[in-house]
Amino acid sequence: MILFPVIPEIDPCTVGNGGCSQVCRSNGDAVRCECREGYTLLEDGTSCEKIDPCSVENGGCDQICRVVEDVVSCECREGYALKSDGRTCKKVDPCSIGNGGCEQICLSSDVSVVCGCREGYTLQKDRTTCKKVDPCSVLNGGCEHVCTWIHDSAQCSCHPGYALVKDLKSCRDVDECEENVPCDHICRNTPGSYECACKSGYELGADKATCYSEYQPSLCA
C-alpha cells in the first residue's frame, strides 16, 4: 500500500484576505466578504464604503446633521438653538438676542420682530431706532400759552400780563391795577394789560399815564 501525504485544506481568507477589503468569511472554498460597522458592501461584493451617518435618520439630529472627523455634529437653523442633548432644537425668542435689533422695545412673534418705543419717543423710518418727541409738538405740551422744551420735558409759561397758576400749565390774567402801575388817576384792568384814565376835567397825556388839567390858565405879561 502506498500512502500519500494529506494536504490540509487551505482557508481562502488567509490568502489576500480572500479578496475582501475588510472582513472575510469562508465556508470551504467559498468566500463571503463583509464590512465593519459604519461601512457598507459595494456591488462588487468585496469593497466597503464608509456610510454617511447623516444619511441614516439624519444622524439622530433634529434639524441639521454634519460629519466632523467621522463624528456626527448636530446644528440648528437660524432662529433655533441646540438643546443640552446635543441633538434637538428649540425656538429662540429673537428679542433675547441683541434685543432683536430694536433700540428700545422688542416684540416677537413666530415669524418676525416688531420694534417699539417708550412713551415720549417715536419710531424712526428704519423701524428699529427711536427719537425723542418734542413734547410741545403734541397739544402744545398741555400748556395754555407758551410751551418750551427744556431738559426733555415741556415747561409752560404765559404771555405778558398773565401768570402761571398752580397746575403749572394754565394762565390767569394779572390785575396790573393791584400792582404799582404809573396811572395818575384811574387804572382799568384789561386782558393781559391795563389802561389809564383820568378824572373829569383832566385829559390823558401822551405817555398814557399822566393826567393834565383840561383848563390851562393863560399867562399874563
Automatic annotation (TrEMBL):
Query: Which Gene3D superfamilies is this protein grouped with?
Result: Laminin
SUPFAM superfamilies per record: EGF/Laminin (SSF57196), Growth factor receptor domain (SSF57184)
Q: Which domain of life is it from?
A: Eukaryota
Give the intrachain disulfide bonds: 177-187
Among the GO molecular function terms of this UniProt record, one is: calcium ion binding
Does Repeat show up as a keyword for this record? Answer: yes
- Cellular component terms, GO, for this chain's entry? cell surface; extracellular space
Can you give the residue ranges of the EGF-like domain? 173-212
Q: For this chain's UniProt record, which GO biological process terms are given? A: signal transduction
Keyword entries, A-Z: Disulfide bond, EGF-like domain, Repeat, Signal
Record PANTHER family: CUB DOMAIN-CONTAINING PROTEIN (PTHR24046:SF7), SIGNAL PEPTIDE, CUB AND EGF-LIKE DOMAIN-CONTAINING (PTHR24046)
This chain belongs to which protein, by name? Multiple epidermal growth factor-like domains protein 6
**Phylogenetic classification of the source organism:** Eukaryota, Metazoa, Ecdysozoa, Arthropoda, Chelicerata
